[in-house]
Design a protein that fits this description.
The complex is a heterodimer of chains A (195) and B (71).
Chain A lengths: L14 H13 L9 H13 L3 H6 L1 H12 L15 H27 L7 E4 L3 E4 L11 H27 L10 H15 L1
Antiparallel strand pairs in A: 1-2
Helix pairs in contact in A: 1-4, 2-7, 5-6, 5-7
Chain B lengths: L1 E7 L9 H5 L5 E4 L3 E4 L9 H5 L5 E7 L7
Antiparallel strand pairs in B: 1-4, 2-3
Classes of the chains: A mainly alpha (195), B alpha+beta (71).
Chain lengths: 195, 71
């Protein structure tokens, strides 16, 4: 890799965080809440800084795809179809993602209100239920906190799996071309740059 | 004299910054989180950025240098 001669910064090792995150959630689902950092920090950079410094330098997921795809040669490194990075697909995927996020918040609300009971399972690709009972027995937190954890972990794992699939099929970081956070932060930056 | 230079299609760039992280000359920056900007003057046309770009937004083209004394 050509960039090897550059000085390495601590934030270039955040791909380790990605692995740690999923490992922690495997043992205790409450750790899923830590994933909110990956939602909030990029938005802070975009809203207050008007930049994508998070995407550009410290996205652990993007780095993981790079490490696996480039360094460990798990990617075909073929150009992805152009529609994958087209505006309609990017914003469409963002809208879909936000809808599913809203749905997950609603599920959390149902548990909060007592209308539903806690379901100790994660859902992959918004469809396939995977039992995940071992990751939660009981805690000092109310059930809705755990329900959110299961939902959020499902979302994080699903999006990582999609990213891994496109990493293998196309370029290492093809996920970045339609990552909802990336689309959202770029959109915010574009609005800010226009002013 | 013809030289190879990388060129960014700003409208398809997703500003992910992979190109900037890979550029051996460190001459790519992300303009206000909107798109990548390459310092064409310093670009050596190696194509590493284009190969890394997930959005097919970078192409390396032959450009004819204008005979104005710049190398």
């Amino acid at each position: 890799m050509a960039a090897n001669n550059k000085k390495k910064h601590w934030y270039q090792y955040l791909w380790i965080w990605s692995i740690v995150y999923f490992s922690l959630g495997f043992f205790n689902i409450l750790f899923a809440w830590l994933g909110m950092l990956d939602f909030i920090i990029p938005l802070i950079f975009a809203i207050f800084g008007g930049n994508k410094w998070f995407c550009n330098n410290m996205c652990g997921r993007g780095q993981l795809f790079w490490v696996l795809g480039r360094n460990l040669k798990c990617s075909r490194q073929k150009p992805a179809p152009n529609w994958m990075s087209s505006k309609w697909f990017r914003y469409g995927f963002l809208a879909f993602f936000m809808t599913m996020f809203g749905n997950m918040i609603f599920q959390t609300y149902l548990v909060f209100s007592g209308a539903e009971s806690l379901r100790k399972a994660i859902k992959l690709f918004w469809t396939f239920k995977v039992p995940w009972k071992w990751a939660y027995s009981t805690s000092i937190f109310p059930d809705w906190v755990a329900q959110f954890s299961f939902g959020f972990y499902s979302l994080m794992l699903t999006s990582t799996l999609i990213g891994l699939i496109v990493m293998v099929l196309y370029k290492e970081r093809t996920w970045c071309s339609f990552c909802p956070m990336g689309t959202m932060t770029q959109g915010i930056c574009k609005l800010k740059a226009k002013k | 004299m013809a030289r190879r230079k990388a060129n960014v299609n700003e409208s398809s760039c997703v500003a992910c910054g992979v190109c900037a992280s890979q550029c051996p000359k460190g001459i790519i920056s992300i303009f206000k989180g909107c798109y990548a900007v390459i310092d064409t003057e310093s670009c050596v046309g190696c194509g590493i950025c284009a190969k890394a770009c997930p959005a097919n937004a970078i192409t390396v083209n032959e450009v004819q240098e204008v005979a104005n004394g710049s190398k």
